[in-house]
Amino acid sequence: MQLSRAMDRVDAQVIDQLLVDGSGWMADRLSRVYSWLDDHLVDGVVNGSGWLTRRFGGLVRQLQNGFVQQYLLIIVVGFLFMVLFLDSLVSLGG
Question: Can you tell me the distance from the alpha carbon of 41 to that of 88, in angstroms, rounded to the nearest whole number?
Fold first, then answer.
């Protein structure tokens, strides 16, 4: 009978409180940390990329006005910038 009571106390105090309740407490704390990271870090990156896409789309939308001459001007200016950039890289290397 004494052994049975002792084993009952070990079960209640060690197994239940330390192992079962402790692992439940740890799982709760980890889930709170993961939830915070998801809400602030992951959602921030996703929402930020959506915002950036909308802003960039708004800028590009302004460039698309149907004037072919303006398209050609943008291409020529972009090409000149690219040539100047590559020229500066080549001059730095040699």
Answer: 38
- Report the Cα 87 to chain-centroid distance in Å: 36
Using alpha carbons, list the distances in angstroms from residue 71 to 35, 55, 75, 83: 47, 20, 6, 18
Q: Which distant-in-sequence residues (6+ apart) come within 8 Å of 74 by Cβ?
A: 63
- Residue-wise DSSP of 50-78: HHHHHHHHHHHHHH-SS-HHHHHHHHHHH
Amino acid letter for position 63: L
Task: Look at the block and give the residue holding tokens 């915070």.
Answer: 36
Residue-wise pLDDT for 17-30, tens only, equals 777 788 889 999 99
Residue 51, token pair as written in the block: 């915002």
